[in-house]
Amino acid sequence: MAKKISDEKLESMLRDLYGTKLSEDELFHEDLSAEMNIKISESSKRTKIRILKNAVVACAAVLCLTVPYHFLSGLGKGDKVVFDSEISDNAYDISTDLDKLSDLTGEDLRSFDFEVITLKSSSYYRKVSEGDSGDEKDALRDRIFMELGLVPYEDTETAGKALFIRTINDGSRTFYTRQAYLVEYGRDGEISLEASTTEKISEEQNLIITSSDVFKGFDNADGGFRNLVSRFQRKNSAVKFDGIEIRKELDTDAEQSVETESICAVLLKEGKLQPVAIYSLEYTVDGKVLTGEELPEQINAKYSGGVTTYSAVLAYDCTYKNSLRINNTENDGLWKF
Amino acid sequence: MKDKTDISEHIEKCREPLTRLCLSLCGDHHDAADLFQDTCLRAFKYFRNYDETKEFDKWIFSICVNTYRSGLRKLYRMKKLDFLSAEEHDDFFAGIPDTGNSASREEYKELIKAVKKLPEKFHIVIVLRFFSDFTEKDMAKMLGIPEGTVKSRINKAKKLLRKEMECDG
């Protein structure tokens, strides 16, 4: 017969287990202060080096702007491009996790590169997204979540979970792909699969992503989608797409709002970006977006005729602080969990 | 500006509960020592942000819990309450007053087994609740979740523990 454990007994045992004071011998007795001072001084040095490194990277980024083909090679596919310096120095060996993840998904993921992003609680992410200061790495995670649309901010419990995002490195830069897995770590260190994007990167796509030549088609009026997005975020410049003005320049010195023909979604089709949905928006100087019509949460692209080679809709979602959202067209524009 | 000797004194005062919290969370002496050190390092680094009108122990315990949670994939998250040897197991139990008789010892073993199976979010609230009788308000603040969530997690955790122990028994 199964025994019954009363609430009082359970509480008393837990209090014994966790609440019993430790003896002097059991305490940690390192001379912390000396060690701490050394570590902090080392960490401060590292920060300085990082700032310098970031400055160099920033200069490199400016130079890259003058070389649009290279600059565009990753984003054209709908993937996030980051510089290696932005990626955490992840010393953790994930091979065991990848073995397990391969078992869980039935795909052999062992030979791929992944960036593993540890998630904290949803409240933490809310805080960051509201513009509070976060460190560089957190800001990067924040952007990735928003762009992948993987983690809704408001009500998702994310503590104890990690996001495995497949990355592709072309030697100089690392691309975040849309192939991602949300896993939860169990108490025994084992992982379980919570969710995954349906996007899989084939060898062929891999080649496309790493070959900038394929994206020569993006050499249009404003130098491509990345430039387009970037210009959307700068309110004081007009935005053109394939020679069509889709947003006028805002006069930031004046109280001004501008009615625009804003592009909200573009389709990557046969290596070219094409608009699939254009919405009329009103921009104000302080960045708020007023819409004459209700903006849809997701924009679904339908393409018929010819050979459909598109792989993604890149939706410029104005409801999320001018962020770029990348949606999967194969599932009605929604990521599947 | 706050003096670094201040924080050393503060840490000294809560060395025992902080050690215990690290051990409770990690369940392994070496990993707990790492967590202890990481916590102190962070406390040292951010001591200038510490609001002296608030209790220091709660501040550093929050740092400890957050360090533990953000160290998700570090080793000290992987071996919770696993004992490498019988000696280590006995050492751990030596601190529990009620383990003198074998039946009680068995029950603690079952409890530890059950705790090990708890999902992380339930494990943390149980540790915090029974490590120092934190109020739900304190815990909510530390974990960044609403008080109601803390309450429901404690109840759910206890339910899971009871279920597991009763099944085992």
Summarize the structure.
With 337 residues, chain A is α+β, with helices and mostly antiparallel strands. Chain A contains 8 helices and 12 strands. Chains A and B meet through helix 1 and helix 2 of A and helix 1, helix 2, helix 3, helix 4 and helix 6 of B.
Descriptive report:
The complex is a heterodimer of chains A (337) and B (169). Chain A contains 8 helices and 12 strands. Chain A is α+β, with helices and mostly antiparallel strands and 337 residues long. Chain A has 2 domains: 145 residues, no CATH class; 112 residues, no CATH class. In chain A, the strands form 3 sheets. In chain A, strands 1, 2, 3, 4 and 5 form a 5-stranded antiparallel β-sheet that branches. The radius of gyration of chain A is 24 Å and the shape is globular. Chain A starts with 6 loop residues before the first helix and ends in a 10-residue tail after the last strand. Chain B has 169 residues and is mostly helical. Chain B has 2 domains: 80 residues, RNA polymerase sigma factor, region 2, helix turn helix motif (Rna Polymerase Sigma Factor, Chain: A), CATH 1.10.1740.10; 85 residues, Arc Repressor Mutant, subunit A (Orthogonal Bundle). In chain B, helix 2 packs across helix 3, helix 2 packs parallel to helix 4 and helix 6 crosses helix 9. The longest helix of chain B is centred in the last third of the chain and has 22 residues. The chains are: A alpha+beta (337), B mainly alpha (169).
